[in-house]
């Protein structure tokens, strides 16, 4: 595969933790978007910036879809940990 056929990836969301980024990436994959998660650190517990990226030609559509179904912080925590806040 040459560089001309490789997709250009564009960030559609940023998070400060990897589990939240992975949840959103899975949500987009479930809707048919090729998705990658980029993290600036591999160290557990270290503050980090994580980006969810999709091919640039699909970024506008992905952002629109995300705007239609925003997750609350509680929903993101539940999806990342499997635990409700009250537990």
Task: Describe what you observe in this structure.
By secondary structure, this protein is α+β, with helices and mostly antiparallel strands. It has one domain (9-57, 65-80). Helix content is 37%, strand content 20%. It contains three helices and three strands, in the order E-H-E-E-H-H. Strands 1-3-2 form a three-stranded antiparallel sheet, with helices on one face. Helix 1 packs across helix 3. The radius of gyration is 14 Å and the shape is globular. The mean pLDDT is 83.
Annotation keywords:
87 residues; alpha+beta; 3-stranded antiparallel sheet; 3 helices; 3 strands; globular
Taking Cα atoms only, what radius of gyration do you get, to the nearest Å?
14 Å
Mean pLDDT: 83
Number of helices: 3
Main sheet strand line-up: 1-3-2
Structural class designation: alpha+beta
**Overall geometric form:** globular
Q: Give the low-confidence spans.
A: none
Summarize the structure.
This protein has 87 residues and is an alpha+beta fold. It has helices spanning 18-30, 59-68, 73-81, and strands at residues 9-15, 36-39, 50-55. It is built from three helices and three strands; from the N terminus they run βαββαα.
Task: Describe the secondary structure blueprint for this structure.
Elements: E1 9-15, H1 18-30, E2 36-39, E3 50-55, H2 59-68, H3 73-81
Antiparallel strand pairs: 1-3, 2-3
Helix pairs in contact: 1-3
């Amino acid at each position: 595969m040459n560089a001309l056929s490789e997709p250009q990836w564009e960030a559609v969301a940023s998070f400060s933790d990897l589990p939240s980024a992975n949840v959103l990436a899975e949500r987009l994959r479930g809707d048919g978007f090729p998705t990658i998660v980029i993290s600036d650190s591999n160290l557990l517990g270290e503050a980090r910036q994580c980006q969810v990226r999709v091919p640039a030609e699909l970024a506008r559509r992905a952002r629109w879809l995300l705007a239609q179904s925003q997750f609350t912080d509680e929903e993101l925590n539940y999806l990342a940990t499997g635990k409700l806040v009250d537990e």
